[in-house]
From TrEMBL:
This is protein O-GlcNAc transferase. Keywords: Glycosyltransferase, Repeat, TPR repeat, Transferase. Its EC number is 2.4.1.255. Residues 333-488, 499-684 form the O-GlcNAc transferase C-terminal domain. GO terms for biological process: protein O-linked glycosylation. InterPro entries: OGT, OGT/SEC/SPY_C, TPR-like_helical_dom_sf, TPR_rpt. Belongs to the glycosyltransferase 41 family. O-GlcNAc transferase subfamily.
Length: 714
């Protein structure tokens, strides 16, 4: 049944008739009959061409429909009819903001405030523009002015909380959100934002209460479901997080990057139902430019470096576009020593720190001045204490906003800023989007391209990025002559005399192992492993003790292929890394994962004397183990097809002499080949820094660099 719209009765006075048409438009607008409302406002304007309110209402309706350019024309007409129309200036500013015309928007809001100095909403809207410009101090002042003018303005308190959160002023943000909720108890966004702030303060119970409150207030609030799922992931409640992501996905499958986060969480519990189909759909969406998945998801699920670059570029443009709120970075004077700034959330007991600690200690201090910019979890563990002594300057920027952190790096005249995190947990890509240093390098923590125009270089090696894959990386590539991976040779291997029985391993059977994270175990590689176990009846597969859901799913998948549960053995976590390295010697062969290889775990295995078998893929993440094996002189453990990988694993398990020869070769090569020669690595890395810096000082743009093998003193 079609809706019948009554027309205003005819009147002899055109102005009165125009008012009737506006009132009709208002009624239609309230009923969300926007096109009919536009017609009514147009009729009013035809009757009274200087009717400012009709133009304003017409513009507001166009704005609601997302037709911002057309709305601007109508706002301009309203202002022409009524030059002191403060509301028209304010709403015009909102439309300009939507169109990305930030300065024009600010000018429009400022004019509204000049006309109506107590216009709290104009101050609030002005703050939202400063938010997008990352001008947080000015943003905060706007909200505080709005609150001073209108103390019951709940939305201004919510926005004030948001900027305080961006400024890392978390306790103050909590107070602001709580005030918003006091004024407006059903403010779902404030409850959600308060949850995010409690999460930053590690008050996980309060965060959980806030997210559940937001969802109760607004059952279709997909962002609250998503944030709650991320909290559950942080708490390693992966099965609950997966359920929460499913609820969000059911509400809005196209929500920003939700599909990828959801799949990544399912990988944490080894839930593979429909995985191949969903990955195909995900790849198609990324190919269309959709905000479908964070780039890390593509590293774990795909071996296609072209797709990984697309995902990274989409993510970077959406989350961390190049910012211009800081002035262009000046040319620094040539320093006596090149200033290197390492930025990381992982200066603690973390794989990145395990690899790099010795590197930081042995940098040539006559040539380089080394800075650490630390953020992320503040854990005063032994590694953190060691690293605090390893740098010339160790600066904690956890409580510093991205603009202030970038400005700090500039004030210290950092020559080369090294991002050790990339698109990983707790990363601070926003610092690099603001250009913290004249040269910016993507290195180590993220095994792929960042897809960001402001990252000048990516550190790699010829095995990681063969010539035919060069096009899939947005950065200029620095090729080190050996492996790109540093290896801390001070890592002790405990002299504990572990026995297989200590870990439930068979005394005489063959022990395959893989100590990678659960999300790296894809169904295709697990099928290969089960085929290996079927072909070697005396063998077992030794894995880390994952979360209960992952363990149950792996055992179920094995059972479906006739592999009994007692052939999968799960190792408890040991308190000391040195003890873990020692127990690795109980295994016979480390089986790598595909398409995301072992990185630190492969280095650990080789350092402990355990051979690693890999299948080299096409992506950076899928070629790391091959890079390590090439650098330690064991190319015979690099396969290139899944079938060859499986066949070689079976061959080594059934040919003890062949495996013994490989172990002997590994023992001989361990301290005589480049992989564990940290001084050789450091010389090459420093040569790379010098070449980057020399080009920059000469006014030349970054370009690919192949570092020559250095002649080292014996």
């Amino acid at each position: 049944m079609s809706i019948q719209y009554g027309y205003p009765p005819a009147r002899p006075d055109p102005a009165a008739q125009a008012v009737d048409w506006v009132n009709r438009g208002n009624s239609l607008q309230a009923q969300q009959h926007y096109e009919a409302a536009l017609q009514s406002y147009a009729a009013a304007i035809q009757l009274k061409p200087d009717y400012a309110e009709a133009f304003w209402k017409h513009a507001n309706t166009l704005h609601t429909l997302g037709r911002y350019e057309s709305a601007l024309d109508s706002y301009q007409q309203a202002i022409a009819c009524k030059p002191d129309f403060a509301k028209a200036y304010s709403n015009r500013g909102v439309a300009l903001h939507k169109l990305g015309q930030y300065q024009a928007a600010l000018d429009s809001f400022q004019r509204a405030i000049e006309l109506q100095p107590d216009y709290a909403n104009a101050y609030n809207n002005c703050g939202l523009v400063y938010k997008d410009l990352k001008r947080f101090s000015e943003e905060l002042l706007c909200y505080e002015q709005a609150i001073a003018l209108q103390p019951e303005f709940a939305e201004a308190y919510n926005n004030r909380g948001n900027v305080l959160q961006n400024l890392k002023c978390y306790p103050e943000a909590v107070v602001s959100y709580q005030q918003a909720l006091t004024l407006q108890p059903n403010h779902a966004k404030a409850a959600n934002n308060l949850g995010l702030t409690w999460q930053q303060l590690k008050n996980y119970t309060a965060a959980q209460d806030c997210f559940t409150r937001a969802i109760a207030l607004q059952p279709d609030y997909v962002e609250a479901y998503s944030n709650y799922a991320h909290l559950l992931n942080e708490l390693q409640c992966f099965d609950q997080a997966a359920t929460c992501f499913d609820q969000a996905f059911a509400l809005r499958p196209d929500f920003n990057f939700l599909a990828g986060h959801r799949l990544q969480t399912r990988l944490q519990i080894c839930c593979w139902t429909g995985l191949a189909t969903e990955l195909t759909l995900l790849a198609a969406k990324i190919g269309q430019g959709a905000h479908a998945a964070p780039p890390f998801t593509l590293l774990t699920m795909s071996d296609d470096p072209a797709l990984q670059r697309q995902a990274a570029e989409i993510w970077t443009q959406a989350k961390y576009p190049l910012q211009f709120s800081l002035t262009d970075i000046p040319a620094f004077p040539t320093h006596q020593r090149i200033r290197i700034g390492y930025f990381s959330a992982d200066f603690r007991n973390h794989p990145v720190a395990f690899l790099t600690a010795e590197l930081f200690e042995i940098h040539d201090r006559t040539q380089f001045e080394i800075y650490a910019f630390a953020f992320g979890p503040d854990k005063q563990d032994p590694m953190r204490l060691r690293l605090e002594q390893s740098f010339d300057h160790f600066i904690d920027i956890s409580a510093v906003s991205d603009p202030d952190a970038a400005q700090l790096a500039r004030s210290l005249e950092i020559d080369i800023a090294v991002d050790l995190g990339g698109h990983t947990a707790y990363s601070r890509t926003g610092i690099f989007a603001l250009r913290a240093a004249p040269l910016q390098l993507n290195y180590l923590g993220y095994a792929g391209t960042m897809g960001a125009t402001y990252m000048d270089y990516l550190l790699a090696d010829p095995v990681l990025i063969p010539a035919h894959n060069r096009v899939h990386y947005s950065e200029n590539i620095v090729y080190l002559p050996d492996s790109f991976l540093p290896c801390d040779t001070t890592r002790p291997v405990a002299d504990t005399d572990f026995q297989r029985a200590d870990f439930g391993l068979p005394a005489d059977g063959f022990v395959f192992c893989c100590f990678n994270n659960a999300y790296k175990i894809q169904p295709a590689v697990f099928d290969l492993w089960l085929g290996i176990l079927a072909a070697v009846p005396s063998a077992v597969l030794w894995l880390p003790e994952f979360n209960p859901a992952a363990t149950a799913n792996l055992l179920a998948a094995a059972g479906q292929q006739g592999i009994s549960a007692d052939r999968l053995i799960f190792a408890r976590q040991l308190p000391l890394v040195s003890e873990h390295l020692a127990r690795l010697r109980l295994a016979d062969l480390f089986l790598d994962t595909l398409p995301y290889n072992a990185h630190t775990t492969a280095s650990d295995a080789l350092w402990a004397g355990l051979p690693v078998l890999t299948c080299a893929g096409e992506s950076f993440a899928g070629r790391v183990a091959a890079s390590l094996l090439a650098a330690i002189g064991l190319p015979e453990l690099i396969t290139t097809t899944p079938a060859d990988y499986q066949a070689l694993a079976i061959e080594l398990a059934t040919q003890p002499r062949q495996l013994a020869a490989i172990k002997a070769k590994l023992a001989a090569n361990r301290l005589t080949t480049p992989l564990f020669d940290i001084r050789r690595f450091t010389v090459h890395l420093e040569q790379a820094y010098r070449q980057m810096f020399s080009r920059s000082q000469a006014g030349l743009p970054p370009e690919d660099i192949a570092v020559a093998t250095a002649a080292l003193a014996v």
